[in-house]
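Database export, one record per block. Field names are fixed; values are copied verbatim from the stored entry.
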Amino acid sequence: MSRSRKTANQHLERINQALHYIHSQLAEPLEIYKLAQTAFYSVHHFQRIFREITDESVHDYIRRSRLEWAANLLVFNPDSPVVEIANECGFKSSASFNHAFKAHFGYTPGAWRNERYDLKSRQLKQEWAALADNPHSQYYMALPIGSETTPEVKVKRLEPIHVAYIRHRGYDPAISQCWQRLLDWAETQGIDPAGQKMLGLHHSNPDLVPFDQCRYVACLTVPDRVYRGRGIGVMNIPGGLYACRRAGGIFGDLLYLMHDMTQRWLPTSDYRARNIPSHALYFDNHFINQTGRFDLEFRLPVMLK
């Protein structure tokens, strides 16, 4: 491996540590100097490398992540007070949250919850459907319609899952390259991928975030003795309650399932969303198999209301 490639991988691994910390601590202050410490950089060096890897400043990344999650919670958890959602997403006052939310989305949190979320989502989907390189045009043009039958959802208590992972920006077929790289790395570590579980983390809501900006994480379970390296990170997916639903389909079909779970099942259930990403446990991974079809269990992290 060339020296420049080795350095790039080291930067990626260390920034991954900071990103993992950010997404697990969105309600906390998240001072830059502490984030720099998690990545073992000086503050100046951390800010420069972070922007190179994410295309955003540290401040902008944190602010966008908080606001996107708040926009979701306002709809996913309709019974939660706005001030509670603001605090959960790292805003310490209603005034600062209202100002930031309106500046980002164009509406107040109250208006967003009442009707503007759906209007904004439909407008965005119409715009995205017109893009020539959009792999999800059918989803954007044919918005999900509720069915008369309620799909079977099981709420389970899961243990934390120790995984190696690669982050990918874009919910597109290029995810397959991440999976191949992750599986190749596993073999160099003496790990048989066939004996491990494959999971895909979904940080983004595809009804609000364009497909090329959605954040996906390819994850492979690994023994505790495995350490990060070659640009591959290692972390624990949190345990706790998850609403689970099994499904099969082809690339893009998971968007319908995610929509149904978060915007139909969850708001009328006895549960509310937790502030961690949903994930899919693959029984058959369409990003690496020859059929192009998946068999998976989608897992939405929840807590009792």
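Remark 1: The domain at 3-111 is CATH 1.10.10.60 (Arc Repressor Mutant, subunit A).
Remark 2: The chain has two domains: 3-111, 154-304.
End of record.
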